[in-house]
Design brief:
The chain is mainly β. The chain contains four helices and 23 strands. The chain has an 18-stranded antiparallel β-barrel. It has a two-stranded antiparallel sheet with strand order 8-9. Strands 13-14 form a two-stranded antiparallel sheet. Strand 13 and strand 14 form a beta hairpin. The longest helix has 16 residues.
Length: 461
């Protein structure tokens, strides 16, 4: 259906633009330019571990490198209109697909989500002023090699205001969610309808999380460079409630609160696609858990997660010099859950670093390599081994391929990939004893052929 809409949309747009010119415009029809938006982000790879297996990677941290990620697709469909007064209106929908592909699993199925479904208006009466409402990915800069957003990365249903003018970027937003998993925010039970033999669903728990955010940045020109400091914050709130854990047994759920505060400093402009971004954030309560996460362990005695803490510092950079490039990403994260146990394996520290140099002998030929290391340091004994474990993995990869132009982020990119993974014994011990990856030992290989692209992508940056 999505592809059908994408194919038919240009014809429908053309028909609309070819309407009878003799028909006078209505009093509110002041559009002077309209644009159909069709964009995409995607990645796909076929992999083998050279032992007849599918090459599923072992990971020990929250944000390992993206080099061995599963297939994923986003398709942007939208409409942008500019009026005579200079106001711009945008409507955007981004369906996304993930999971095993039909040609691999033989199952005619896929996981479908709508990542963007919102409308936006800007330059409405006041230059730089904008407003939006709907469901969207609401985020800033990422660490590309690790495929995560260290500071602002919300999946939200709500609305906001922004003002972008002369290097100043201000934004405020409020959104809500009600996660259906684990009956922590929402519970629906079957109740017998009086006078009948049937039953109907009754909502017995309904508590929405409210998330508000505020961000501000200013790009300072420094000759040919720009220095951009950013401040960012979130407030999370979840009301109290109660749920039925078994027949006749009701559990009280306390109110939850959370705060996230952090900042970013960026330097860019000396070369195209070259930049340095440094991030830091501190989060408490349910903001430390994440807006799309239901906590399952680490509760305080009162049943809350208000005492949870997370601190994260991250770095992302890229240097493109024509025939050579170097991209990098790293983070260190410490976390503590809400229980009083200070020697808990659910608490600890982890870090990841990745570097990807590239060489471009011709306009379309790319030869890249990547080295990465991830390590975790839980604060308590591992429940499987009853010992202090420090799992770590080092990966060495070679990525020759072809792409549209030179540089770390030239796309589409079609590549071969070979990865050598050095997995320590602690990382192997974290796997179930029946896990086939344990039998591969501490030196593991994978080979893949894959592609990645972003083509006028509106949601991925």
């Amino acid at each position: 259906m999505v592809l059908l809409i994408a194919l038919l949309a240009p014809k429908l747009v053309g028909a609309a633009l070819a309407a009878d010119p003799a028909t006078p415009p209505g009093p509110l029809d002041e559009a002077v330019e309209s644009q159909l938006i069709v964009g995409s982000y995607g990645r796909v790879e076929a992999v083998t571990d050279l032992n007849g297996g599918g090459g599923d990677p072992i990971t020990v941290t929250a944000h390992p490198g993206r080099i061995e990620e599963d297939p994923y697709l986003e398709l942007d469909l939208g409409w942008r209109t500019t009026t005579e007064s200079g106001a711009e209106f945008l409507a955007l929908i981004t369906p996304a697909l993930s999971g095993d592909l039909f040609h691999y699993s033989g199952t005619f199925d896929a996981s479908l989500a709508v990542r963007n479904l919102y409308a936006q208006a800007r330059d409405i009466g006041v230059p730089g002023l904008g407003v939006w409402a709907g469901s969207r990915m609401y985020r800033g800069d990422d660490v590309y090699l690790l495929d995560f957003w260290p500071l602002d990365n919300l999946n939200t249903l709500g609305g906001g205001l922004f003002w972008q003018r002369s290097g100043l970027d201000l934004g405020v937003h409020v959104g809500v969610n009600r996660l259906a998993s684990s009956e922590w925010q929402y519970q629906s039970l079957q109740d017998v309808t009086p006078g009948t033999v049937g039953a109907s669903s009754v909502t017995t728990l309904d508590r929405q999380r409210t998330v508000g955010s505020l961000k501000a940045s200013y790009a300072i020109p420094l000759g040919g460079l720009h220095l951009r400091p950013r401040l960012y914050g979130e407030l999370h709130s979840l009301p109290a409630g109660s749920r039925e854990v078994e027949a006749g047994v009701v559990e009280d759920l306390p109110a939850e609160r959370g705060v996230l505060a952090g900042g970013e400093v960026s330097l860019y402009g000396w070369e195209k696609q070259s930049y340095i971004n440094v991030f830091y954030r501190h989060a408490t309560g349910i903001a430390a858990v994440g807006e799309l996460t239901v906590p399952t362990v680490g509760f305080a005695l009162d049943g809350s997660v208000n005492a949870s803490r997370e601190d994260l510092a991250a770095l992302a950079f890229n240097e493109d010099l024509g025939v050579v490039s170097l991209a990098g990403g790293a983070y260190v994260r410490s976390w503590r859950d809400a229980d009083a146990n200070t020697t808990d394996p659910d608490d600890g520290v982890e870090w990841v670093v990745a570097l990807r140099p590239g060489v471009y002998p011709t306009r379309f030929l790319a030869i890249a390599a990547e080295v990465s290391h991830e390590a975790a340091f839980p604060a308590g004994l591992d429940p499987r081994t009853n010992a202090v474990e420090q799992p770590a993995i080092t990966r060495l990869s070679l990525l020759p391929g072809v792409q549209l132009g030179r540089g770390s982020f030239a796309r589409p990119n079609i590549h071969l990939r070979y990865t050598l993974a050095l997995v320590n014994q602690d990382a192997l011990d974290r796997l179930d004893e029946q896990d086939a990856r344990r039998a591969l030992g501490p030196v593991q290989h994978s080979v893949g052929i894959g592609a990645e692209w972003w083509i006028d992508s509106q949601g991925y940056r």
